[in-house]
TrEMBL record:
Superkingdom to which the source organism belongs: Bacteria
Pfam families: AHSA1
Homology family: Belongs to the AHA1 family.
InterPro entries, A to Z: ASHA1/2-like_C, START-like_dom_sf
Gene3D superfamilies the record matches: 3.30.530.20
UniProt protein name: SRPBCC domain-containing protein
Organism: Flavobacterium plantiphilum
Domain spans labelled Activator of Hsp90 ATPase homologue 1/2-like C-terminal: 11-119
Length: 145
């Protein structure tokens, strides 16, 4: 497992960036770069389960491991989802168990730095490098509008 880190400076308060990250309508806009139609099902509270799903019911079953409003969100991926059902962990999905995905926001003089980190396998490094660059650009564009 390899951890990739992505950063972008956004000319907007961190509260606005935070809202755009996690509100359903805007989450769907930036998450679409990973798969068109991607959405999340959760109450977005620390300790709660969350599922990141595609329209055909595939994705990740995770837990919100840590949440500090307007500052930090950490997801721990626990299992894969297929046909809207949590799949038992097997050899093919074992490598994703306990993979982390985090988002942190820091603000100075009206400029927010968004840093995203994701654990991935070598197979997905190129995909995530491309997708996260696009996702962060969309978040910046939405935040600065």
């Amino acid at each position: 497992m390899k951890t990739l880190t992505f950063k972008i400076e956004i000319n907007a308060p961190k509260e606005k960036v935070w809202s755009l990250l996690w509100e359903d309508a805007t989450y769907r806009k930036w998450a679409a770069v990973f798969c068109e139609g991607t959405y999340a099902v959760s109450d977005w509270e620390e300790g709660s389960m969350i599922q990141f799903l595609t329209p055909n019911g595939e994705g990740m079953h995770s837990v919100i491991e840590k949440k500090t409003a307007n500052e930090y969100m950490a997801f721990k991926h626990l299992a894969m989802v297929k046909n809207f059902e949590i799949e038992p962990v097997d050899l093919a999905t074992q490598e994703w168990v306990n993979a982390m995905e985090t988002y942190s926001l820091t603000e100075e003089n009206g400029v927010t730095v968004l840093e995203a980190k994701v654990d991935t396998t070598e197979k997905y490094v190129v995909f995530f490098n491309d997708a996260f660059a696009k996702a962060l650009s969309i978040i910046k564009e939405l935040s600065e509008a």
